[in-house]
Write a structure and sequence with these properties.
By secondary structure, this protein is an alpha/beta fold. The protein has helices spanning 14-24, 43-53, 76-93, 111-125, 152-162, 170-179, 184-192, 223-228, 249-259, and strands spanning 2-8, 30-34, 57-60, 98-100, 103-106, 130-133, 145-148, 165-169, 198-201, 235-238. The longest helix has 18 residues, at 76-93. The radius of gyration is 17 Å and the shape is globular. The N and C termini lie close together (11 Å).
Length: 262
């Protein structure tokens, strides 16, 4: 298994120093970098880290937290600008994968229309590096919106139309199944049948309808069972919350826990 550390492009102080240290200590195997829009000036710092440590990068495109919404036609110009910046990061950092989120619709919006708009915007933006990530159904901020790309059926439609790859977020799959009144184990098996190229993992209360990003062992998800379902050579980015702005000791603990699952 390859373990990924996820940081944001603005994390150029303590977390960047910690990433340098932890990679040297073989705590993680690659860095997944979320591109905050308008931060191209940080790219030389990340490239210096890549060149210094020969560190592999995966890029994560910005999402609704930074105003990107592929399911809204009114966002198309801003979306393209954000994706152009994202591709620039991927090009310079030699990233072979770019993870993208679908977007969201108003609570009373039409699910079919939102999915069609997402596909229409993603197709001209996509290249062979794109991996679409499944989403929870309910947003973490409790706003009256519904996330697009939350079901195995929606992801299957996106993959068929856009010809991109798939990143399976396990916490998202569990939360979405619960929100839809489905069995999360059944949904997880369905998502796995789509042959994801990489994974996101955090703990969660197994009956939660909201994504929680808990540290391993602090939720009720049977993590050993879940990890046993993944390919032996899976690339797994740890997406647990941060306890400190000064160090990544919590990440190191989670990474050790993940490596010790049978």
């Amino acid at each position: 298994m390859k373990i990924g550390l996820k940081l944001w492009s603005v994390n150029t102080d303590a977390y960047l120093r910690e990433a340098r240290r932890l990679y040297a200590e073989k705590v993680f195997d690659y860095l997944e970098l979320y591109v905050v829009p308008g931060t191209l000036e940080t790219l030389p710092l990340w490239n210096a880290l890549r060149e210094e440590k020969n560190l592999p990068f995966i890029i994560h495109a910005p999402h609704s937290f930074h105003g990107v919404n592929l399911a809204d036609a009114a966002n198309s110009v801003a979306n393209k600008k954000s994706f152009d910046e994202t591709k620039r990061f991927a090009d310079i950092l030699g990233a072979g994968k770019i993870i993208v989120h679908g977007g969201w619709r108003p609570e009373d919006g039409n699910p079919t229309d939102a999915l069609a708009q997402l596909i229409a915007q993603l197709k001209p933006l996509a290249d062979e590096r794109f991996l679409v990530e499944n989403k929870p159904y309910l947003p973490i901020d409790n706003l009256p919106r519904r996330l697009v790309g939350s079901t195995p059926g929606e992801i299957r439609s996106i993959l068929a139309a856009v010809k991109c790859g798939f990143c399976l977020d396990i916490g998202h799959a569990v939360a979405s199944a619960n929100a839809h009144g489905a069995d999360w184990r059944v949904w997880l098996a369905d998502f796995l049948s789509l042959k994801p190229e990489m994974f996101h993992l955090s703990d969660i209360q197994a009956d939660s309808k909201i994504d929680q990003h808990l540290h391993f062992g602090t939720g009720t998800l049977p993590l050993a069972e879940v990890v046993s379902m993944l390919p032996r050579d899976a690339s797994v980015s740890i997406e647990t919350k941060r306890d400190s702005t000064d160090n990544l000791n919590d990440f190191a603990k989670d990474a050790e826990c993940l490596r010790n699952f049978p």
